[in-house]
């Protein structure tokens, strides 16, 4: 059950996207009696600008045209209802919450480019999981920046989760190995591995992530259980490009979309859904500790369009 307070928070967080999409759509169709080529052209431009992607945009416009041909569309204001229907349908396919079993170790490997908000997201996720009754351990496998280790320690202290670390410039895989030794010693909670921010175009850095994944797989059968890709919504189309590469190269299995409160490009979640078929596990709509939430498609669409 989604609380009214979160729906309001989500609406506030999506203000820029709402303004770019909903208000402009309302202005476009208001008083529009004729469904003509000019309207379709402006609608296409509007959806592309919101970073919903060419495929979704094309499908929606074709849907509208087909309904017109079948005399199922009386006026332009009904376009908003079609948009709502199609968004709910496509987002419903990727609204797949992360299921974490009780009483057995569960390894989450967090990946993403520099500046995506990865370490902060890890801290918020640890808080979310702790509140749900899980034991959580954090692993500082971003050993190339002292600040990254320190930031994770601050989060660990804040959410009361231990942090496994080594000295600066240590082998990241060795830090992960240390953490997995805790599992062999009886730890049965969630392990969240913070990795260094990777430019998805840098082959050597991607190889480091593959090495960490291999170590995890070798030491714990079936792990990592989730490879969580943290994407910055403000980057729009670039987030989709990053996701494609991280899915192909590392096997990203789920997405966290951060900074939705700071962008007019929130429609990128539609593009992620239609082009990648990767589940969006969580969304970030603010700076607060509790501003990371499980992604729910109907709540998201309601906050965006209603």
What does this structure look like?
The chain contains 12 helices and 8 strands. The chain has helices at 4-13, 15-29, 37-49, 54-69, 79-92, 118-131, 146-159, 172-184, 203-219, 237-250, 268-276, 297-305; strands spanning 106-111, 136-140, 163-164, 190-194, 226-232, 254-258, 280-284, 292-294. Strands 3-2-4-1-5-6-7-8 form an 8-stranded mixed beta sheet, with helices on both faces. Strand 5 (226-232), helix 10 and strand 6 (254-258) form a beta-alpha-beta unit. Helix 8 (172-184) packs parallel to helix 9 and helix 10 runs parallel beside helix 11 (268-276). The model has no long low-confidence stretch (mean pLDDT 90).
Bulk shape: elongated
Strand-pairing-aware structural class: alpha/beta
Instruction: Order the strands across the largest sheet as they lie in space.
Output: 3-2-4-1-5-6-7-8
Whole-angstrom Rg: 21 Å
Percent of sequence in beta strands: 5-15%
Order of helices and strands: HHHHHEHEHEHEHEHEHEEH
Largest sheet: 8 strands, mixed
Number of strands: 8
Low-confidence stretches: none
